[in-house]
Every structure is written in structure tokens, then in C-alpha cells.
Specification:
By secondary structure, the chain is of the alpha+beta class. It has one helix and three strands.
Length: 72
């Protein structure tokens, strides 16, 4: 959901991500990649564990994806 907020604690971000692997951008002074995926690897620049309900939902989604991939 584009209305959800996530907790960032630093100003680091990735710069060399293939367009097909980008899941989300964040705007904070500049636009930067905040989540990406390639095959079974998912990465995010924020802290889902500190992002309340939205973070819990994201972690739940990661677990669901991992379990679906494990059985396929």
C-alpha cells in the first residue's frame, strides 16, 4: 500500500539494481530503491521489524512467499 510508512534509520541505499528487480522506491529528498527481489532473494533498505503493522504484514508476506517457493 502506498500509504504505509516504514522505519528508516540511515541514509544508505543501493544504486545498481536492474529495473526488473525493483519492488519499490521511496522519496525522501531523492527517489531511491527501497525494496528489491531477484529469484529467492528479497532486500529492503528499511526496518520491517520496527515498522508496526505495515512491517508485520511485510514479514508475513516474506514468510508466505518463502513457504510457497519451498513447496514448488
Amino acid at each position: 500500500n502506498s500509504e504505509d510508512f516504514f522505519y528508516f534509520v540511515h541514509s544508505y541505499y543501493v544504486t545498481d539494481v536492474a529495473m526488473e528487480n525493483i519492488l519499490s522506491y521511496t522519496s525522501y529528498g531523492i527517489d531511491f530503491v527501497s525494496a528489491f527481489a531477484k529469484e529467492n532473494i528479497f532486500g529492503c533498505q528499511f526496518h520491517p521489524e520496527k515498522s508496526h503493522d505495515a512491517g508485520l504484514k511485510l514479514l508475513t508476506n516474506f514468510c508466505t512467499l518463502a513457504s510457497v517457493k519451498a513447496y514448488n
